[in-house]
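Format notes (please read before filing issues)

Several people have asked whether sequences and structure tokens are stored in separate files. They are not. Every record keeps both together, in the order shown below: the sequence lines, then the token lines. Line labels are part of the format and must not be stripped during preprocessing.
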Amino acid sequence: MEQRQLGRSGPVVSRLAFGAMMFGGVTDEKVARLMLDAFVDAGGTLVDTADLYGTSESMIAGWLRARPGARERVVLATKGRFAMEGQPGASLAPAYLRTALDASLDRLGVDHIDLYQLHGPDADTPLEDTAAFLAEAVASGNVGYVGVSNFPGWLFTKLSRLLAENGGPPLVAHQVQYSLLARAVEWEVVPATVDAGAGSLLWGPLGQGWLTGKYRRDEPPAPDTRVAGADDEHLESWHRRDTDRIWAIVDQVVKVAADLGLTPGQVAVAWAADRPGVTAPIVGARNVEQLTDSLGAADVHLPAEVSAALDEISSPPAPQYPYPWVEEISHWHD
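Then the structure lines:
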């Protein structure tokens, strides 16, 4: 599998990352180990989890113990910020993050985490304090590199600046939702990430299953699917995505897949992997079959005309201001 550097100064990681969010929920330990084996055997290196993902960290630890040499081959990433049982004070405050980091190290059974990510913003903690924690975590040797997830562009930029001004480690990664169905991060978040020298890791590149082609217009989703179980406020819910625009994108992906001899999911992942500023889409799965399908995109680069057509049909509607206006005046000259 192709390897890429994460940002300007991060580790070298595989073009696809593996997301272990399902471990301990819909995926039992036996299947989890089979998926991790399949990912690493395919040349994958970046394994992403979080303390919030139930028993995911512990299940990865079991796999690491059972597979000699796996720790040396894997770039291990996790996250902290949200409430965990037995860990009061959830926030980006250093005291809480120290507790969260120590607990993740213990659950993962490792002496350091390659990439530690702040799982989301916290308006109640001064960002200067959070920056000091990140510097401390790297200096202690407990963490190799640092990044964030789900930050707005301006906040990512501010944290990056604070770290640089105080001799801290650079942010090397920003994990965001990004797919053919969710491209709003292109307006500010991805440009801010690129400007700071970090790489984008993408969660949800399959649009929560919509881009696999398994859903059909005018056919409600099967009861055992993620979409069927999503409440109306969830982004992937049928109520929110059963629109002409979404179906046009899905139909185009299905057509491209048939023309190229790929599956729709492989088309969606390959498109995401080659977007500007992207280091790796994170592919999660409920079972080995789903993972195998996604891994089929590892070496796929879509023809330029195909990517352009997908870009056009999925182009996100611009907010009324300032983006269309800024684009217009950017070409004004004396």
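For reference, the curators noted about this record: The chain has a mean pLDDT of 94. The beta strands are 3-5, 12-14, 17-19, 46-48, 75-80, 113-118, 143-149, 171-177, 199-203, 278-283.
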